[in-house]
Each structure stands twice: as C-alpha cells, then as structure tokens.
C-alpha cells in the first residue's frame, strides 16, 4: 500500500478578487513539482466565484473536465451550442477532445457560487468533443457511496474517456464502509468535502486530500457527519 496526504492548508491559494481558488495540484501560477497530479487526476480546484462573475470563453483540448457545484448556480455556454445552468446536485462533464471553447459564469448577481473543477487525462486523444450533465438524487449517497462517473455510458452517472470511477458519500457519524478498487492499477484520491473521516488509519478533516494505491480495498470510517468525494483513476 502506498499513500500521499495533502492537508487542506497546504494547497495552492490563488485569490483574484472575484475568484478564490484552492489548488490541490499545480495549476496556473501555483507550481509544486511534488504535486503535479495523482495518476490521471491532473487538476482538483476548489473554486469560489463572486456574484455575477466568471470565466470568459476559453479553449481546451484532450482533457476530461468535470464540474461539481457545491453552492449556487453556474451558467455554462460552449462552442457546441450548449447553454445551461448547473447547480448543487448536478454533475457536468466535457470531453474536450479535438477542441472546445466554453465559458462558466455565476448566474446570480446577489450570491456567490462554489464548485469543484476537476481535470482527468484521457485514455483516447482527439475524440469528438462531448458535453453532458445530470442531476443526482442526494438520498442515494446517504450512508453509501453513490457512483457519479465511470468509463461506461450505461453505468449510473456521467462517463469519460478514462478508466475512472467517482463516488460521493454523505455519511453519518459512526458509519463504516469499504471501497473496492474497480480497475487494475488504479488508485483513489479522496477529497473530504466536510467533516472528519478515517481512511484505514489516516485521520482526515474538511478539505484534506488523501491518495491511496497499490491496494485492493480500504475502509472509510466517519468520525463525524461527513461528505466525501472519491476519485479512482489509473496511476500509470
């Protein structure tokens, strides 16, 4: 078993006034050669955007981009003609493939928006760009792990061009569960959205990140009411 711990207060901190972003891995002006990625997981940004502000139209290619809103409403537009709003309970995915341009704005003029921006390196390059979003039932993650992403379009959740599985859990204090690795050679990066948990013997708190690999399964124990995001990705 191998592990890596990223405490919440060790993340990169970028405050642009209208945007406050915490970077778990090197991104933009934050560079740490020891924190470039976790396997195929390249970016995990914890973003807060002021009322009425956002990211203007900009391009991406050959990246799987996942957005998970935590508070507020985020308005999306892209070069494929999509115009929609994502909010807490939704999952958004873009396979940038051969190239896509998009913008993301806080739809509301009176309150902020918070969301996770996640980039995963694809296992296929130059695919046809694709956009999708779904609305999840939060009850399906109460004291269980709700699958929100996989490599299979037939599975629950969204799908991406990578051998990856994401799960969300909303756990009551004292709840315990096991997570079994789905893909050979994969590892899991756990991000604690709120509360206190143990993964095996590692104590974790709100906004901590913890990577674990070279293991078949591990145990999650909630030391308080907690919310957790698990991101299983190839390590090679």
Automatic annotation (TrEMBL):
Give an example GO molecular function: metal ion binding
Keywords tagged on the record: Iron, Metal-binding
- The Quercetin 2,3-dioxygenase C-terminal cupin domain is annotated at 148-233
Q: Which InterPro entries does the record match to this protein?
A: Pirin, Pirin_N_dom, Quercetinase_C, RmlC-like_jellyroll, RmlC_Cupin_sf
> Cofactors per UniProt?
Fe cation
- CDD domains xrefs: cupin_Yhhw_N (cd02910)
All residue ranges annotated as the Pirin N-terminal domain in the record: 13-120
Is Metal-binding set as a keyword in this record? yes
- State whether keyword Transcription applies: no
Record note on cofactor: Binds 1 Fe cation per subunit.
Q: Where does Fe cation bind?
A: 58, 60, 102, 104
Gene3D superfamilies named among the record's database cross-references? Jelly Rolls
Give the family, as the similarity comment puts it.
Belongs to the pirin family.
The entry's protein name is Pirin N-terminal domain-containing protein
Naturally occurring in which organism (per UniProt): Daejeonella rubra
Q: What is the lineage of its organism?
A: Bacteria, Pseudomonadati, Bacteroidota, Sphingobacteriia, Sphingobacteriales
């Amino acid at each position: 078993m191998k592990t890596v711990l990223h405490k919440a207060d060790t993340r990169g901190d970028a405050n642009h006034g209208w945007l406050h972003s915490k970077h778990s891995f090197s991104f933009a002006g934050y560079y740490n050669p020891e924190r470039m990625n976790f396997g195929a997981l390249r970016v995990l940004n914890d973003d807060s955007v002021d009322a009425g502000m956002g990211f203007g139209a900009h391009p991406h290619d050959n990246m799987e981009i996942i957005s998970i809103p935590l508070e507020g409403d985020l308005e999306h537009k892209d070069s494929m003609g999509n115009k929609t709003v994502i909010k807490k309970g939704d999952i958004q995915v873009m396979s940038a493939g051969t190239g896509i341009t998009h913008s993301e704005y806080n739809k509301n003029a009176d309150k902020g928006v918070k969301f996770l921006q996640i980039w995963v390196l694809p296992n296929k390059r130059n695919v046809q760009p694709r956009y999708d979003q779904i609305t999840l039932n939060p009850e399906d993650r109460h004291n269980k792990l709700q699958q929100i992403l996989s490599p299979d379009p037939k599975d629950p959740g969204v799908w991406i061009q990578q051998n990856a599985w994401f799960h969300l859990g909303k756990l009551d204090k004292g709840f315990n569960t096991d997570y079994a690795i789905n893909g050979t050679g994969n590892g899991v990066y756990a991000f604690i959205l709120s509360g206190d948990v143990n993964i095996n013997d590692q104590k974790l708190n709100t906004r901590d990140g913890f990577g674990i690999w070279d293991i078949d399964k591990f145990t999650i124990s909630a030391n308080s009411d907690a919310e957790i995001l698990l991101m299983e990705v190839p390590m090679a």
